[in-house]
Amino acid sequence: MNRFVGAVPATARLAVTVLLLAAMGGFLALGWGAAAVLAAYATLFVLAAFPPDPRWKLAALAVLTLEATLGLASKIGGDLLFIALVGVLVLLLRLPKVAVWLKVLLGAAVLLLGIPIAGFANTFLFELGIQIGIYSAMALGLNVVVGMAGLLDMGYAAFFAIGAYTWAIFGSSQVQHFLTTWVPLNGNFVYLFMGLAILATAATGILIGLPALRLRGDYLAIVTLGLGEVVRILANNLDHPLNLTNGPQGITGITKPPIEGFQALLAALGIPRSASTDYQLFFYLLVLVIIGFIVLVNVNLARSKFGRAWVAIREDEIAAKAMGIPMVKTKLLAFATGAAFSGAMGVLFAAQRGFVSPETFTLTASITILGMVVLGGMGSVPGVILGAAALTILNLDLLKGFSEVLNTMRQDGTVLLGFPMSQLPSQVDPAKYERLVFGIILILMMIFRPEGLIPERRGSREEEA
Amino acid sequence: MLLLLPQVLFDGLLLGFVYAMIALGYTMVYGVLELINFAHSEIFMIGSVVGIEVFRSLTGYVPNPYILLVVAVILGGLISGLTAVGVERLAYRPLRKRGTKNRLVPLITAFGVSFVLQDLVKLLEGLWHNEFFLSMKNVGELEQSVTLFGIFIQYKSFILIGVSLVMLGALTWLVGRTRLGLAIRSVAQDPSTAGLMGIDPEKIISRTFLIGGALGGVAGVLFALQYTTVSPYVGFLPGIKAFTAAVLGGIGNIPGAVVGGLVLGEIETLAGTFLPVLTGGAFGTEYKDVLAFLILILLLLFRPQGLLGQIVKEKV
């Protein structure tokens, strides 16, 4: 790649970038959404493949952020421009030779201004942002297990479910089905329950991991796969003899954390408010804080005694054992840590949606999270976040959008390549084919790029040495 | 309650044979590659779908159900076996060629293949019949039954047991008495030395996938005949349980897989019948899947080498 980049003079690269950005601005002013989106993606491509000088690249990213935000605020470009904002963040993470505070400033502008402004114009984008955040946090948790320690956990959604149900049961009137005198807890307990869920899921992780982790890694994959199924069966059937989970109907009316203080703050800052966006903004910011925390934990763990032991085990188990690393204990710690992250996010998920049902915690959910880690790059924090963003958008936005397009074509009686679309069977619904997409991603990544889109730094340094 | 026992044991036997045949596919591939070929559950699923499609589309042309059954078994075994070979060629071989040391890589690929196969079959059936759940055609003659020693037995159950026994016998002969079997055993023991003896390990691996896949496919056809409703996601649970059966018997061990399958089939059927009775309806039949999982966990805890297996030390 680098050889091609050198073939294009630096001034030409800069000129193209400037032209594209100007074109995008023009299209936005004219209200041509599709053209503006194309220009934004072209800019991102040029910045990624033929980057100008890093400082100009940063400036270009800043302009792109501004234009995309303005476009989103005036409802031009919609979901696709939102994806461009995610692209800006990714390029920002990979930007070399620029002062850190500049990068942080632009990153904060995207996260704290760009996305909320887009969210106020289109609440679906807020929801998308929150979901990306929740999935990023979970994928970062799974990254500790799969990426750092090299243990395959196929039932990650099980821990998510345990977390979600702990809060769902005690944070709603569900609790009165088996403890008649108990009252549903108030919203402040959400934070306490995140802690409780961490304990509960870590304990479950140890219980399940202990037998499997003494053996070869493959066994863990099957055991966790089984666990995922068992938790789903329990959630589905524990509505009798004692109604703990309310069975397949799920639990509704789960208490959200109180946000009076936050609302007062918004009023004082003069931010436009409504009942729904208040909560969305709150959860969005909360998720950002949690991700920040999890990234810190990830980075510090990677550099700690345990992180290095995990990598050693991943690279060569027998050699690691010979170096005196206690195998079962170290693996268990990785497995339980990952489980704990998932449990805490489960509580947040239940509180944010106000509703949980067994359907959320299927095998497909576990694969989705694994796909995020594998796509982005096992062990790489920016990679995993990119993977989470890409697959969440694919899942919630693109596949559903594709389904809607097909449905409209069915109803309008469109004829595509001589085939009347109204004849298309109703089972052919792209939104229900996530497994196909994720499966293809897993296979192709393993064959062509097992290190992921943004490989872990440590690995590349070793290869050079 | 005890009056039910012979019937329950017989039903467990049927399920056990299905598990045993799937478990053989896991165990054989594990023997030569040390890979848990998770996609094997989908090979089984493809067999069951082929079985149903044969009965659906040919009943009008072939009036004799036994001929139909033979066609279904052969086609199911063939298509499943070839799919398994194709999967090995397209997904696993490129990984071996590159020589990745990381064990996670083939395992993740196996899961990926499994999901792709599930949704491809779902897409095909969606385009063809617009159905997700597929039901077996009711074939009158095979549904007939006799009652022996108080056990209600359908003709198709005899067929399931008969075909399984024939397949298991053929496999034992193939692995134990033929040149191909000798080659498979030698590759399982040491691929590079086997290569020096003039055996092409790649060819043998491919054959192993063919044999294991064909067994899984036949198991699928028989499963569809016996339990009548399948879907593209039907392979998942029998897949996990057959794997449990393989571990129960000692993974890599062929008689072990059969024993494990039969034991698991019996335990599961017994639990499914008596759990609701014993707990006064508090815990229903659904918990039989949980039980299979508990067995796996306990097994890994106390006897990871399985009933018939030996502990294998990992080599550098």
Question: How is the topology of this model organized?
Answer:
The complex is a heterodimer of chains A (465) and B (316).
Chain A lengths: L1 H6 L2 H21 L2 H17 L4 H20 L4 H16 L6 H22 L1 H26 L7 H15 L18 H25 L3 H21 L13 E2 L7 H10 L5 H29 L1 H11 L1 H6 L4 H27 L1 E2 L6 H14 L4 H32 L2 E2 L2 E2 L13 H15 L8 H8 L1
Antiparallel strand pairs in A: 1-2, 3-4
Helix pairs in contact in A: 2-3, 2-4, 3-4, 3-5, 4-5, 4-6, 5-6, 5-17, 6-7, 6-12, 7-12, 7-15, 7-16, 7-17, 8-9, 8-10, 8-15, 9-10, 9-15, 12-13, 13-15, 16-17, 16-18
Chain B lengths: L4 H29 L6 H19 L6 H34 L5 H26 L4 E2 L4 H4 L1 E4 L2 E4 H23 L1 H11 L1 H6 L4 H27 L1 E2 L5 H14 L4 H25 L9 H15 L14
Antiparallel strand pairs in B: 1-4, 2-3
Summed up, what is this model?
The complex is a heterodimer of chains A (465) and B (316). Chain A is mainly α and 465 residues long.
Task: Jot down its keywords.
heterodimer; A: 465 residues; mainly alpha; 2 domains; two-stranded antiparallel sheet; two-stranded antiparallel ribbon; 19 helices; 73% helix; globular; B: 316 residues; ABC transporter involved in vitamin B12 uptake, BtuC; 12 helices; 4 strands; 74% helix; 4% strand
Overview of the structural elements:
The complex is a heterodimer of chains A (465) and B (316). Chain A has two domains: 1-121; 125-382, no CATH class. Chain A has 19 helices and four strands. Chain A has helices at residues 2-7, 10-30, 33-49, 54-73, 78-93, 100-121, 123-148, 156-170, 189-213, 217-237, 260-269, 275-303, 305-315, 317-322, 327-353, 363-376, 381-412, 434-448, 457-464, and strands at residues 251-252, 355-356, 415-416, 419-420. In chain A, strand 3 and strand 4 (419-420) form a beta hairpin. The two termini of chain A are 21 Å apart. The model of chain A has no long low-confidence stretch (mean pLDDT 84). The relative contact order of chain B is 0.19. Chain B contains twelve helices and four strands. Chains A and B meet through helix 9, helix 10, helix 16 and helix 18 of A and helix 3, helix 4, helix 10 and helix 12 of B.
